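Field reference: sequence -> structure
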Amino acid sequence: MTGALAGVVLCGGQSSRMGTDKALLEMEDGGPLLLRVALRLAEVADPVMLASGSAGRLEAFGYPEVGDEVPGAGPLAGIAAGLAASPHELTAVVAVDMPLASPAVLRLLASLARGEDAVVPVSSSGLEPLHAVYARTALPRLETALRGDHLSVREALRGLRVREVRQDEWHPADPSGRFALNVNRAEDLPARNVSRGPGDRRAPSI
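Structure field:
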């Protein structure tokens, strides 16, 4: 773990495509999805914060929470809230629906930072801004986007100095490339990793 990197788990979404709160989906190997991602992030970042949309919503998990200044503004608001609360110049950001988030890739991204506003890996799907490292210098631009109701993270990146990290650079850190897997829909859930259905155990009510 490096003291120069904070971490933020983006878990303030409505999970409308999933039909339930993705953050609380319980993994077969123990604990909710939220904890899986937070623990992976904690391998390279300290502190790890939860951008929960509304501070206090996930207090049962024991991580510091940051609330959105602009309610309902999605991941962009969570990133901005995390950067504003971060004690470090660099902050690793991961969406809660990325169960295979890679500490090694995040460590690599932080090591490549040379004064850019963001260091973002590029997968076969394009930029992965929800598994990336941001500098505090990105905050003014993100706040401007929020005030202007421009809520797309990818659009906000166009106004930032971005270091794009191509596959040939991150491949040694994660040869599978599965750090970019997300579970926005029920069919995206890794069948052998996540329990679902009426009989499944759930995280404690919070």
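Note: Confidence is low (pLDDT under 50) at residues 15-19, 191-206.
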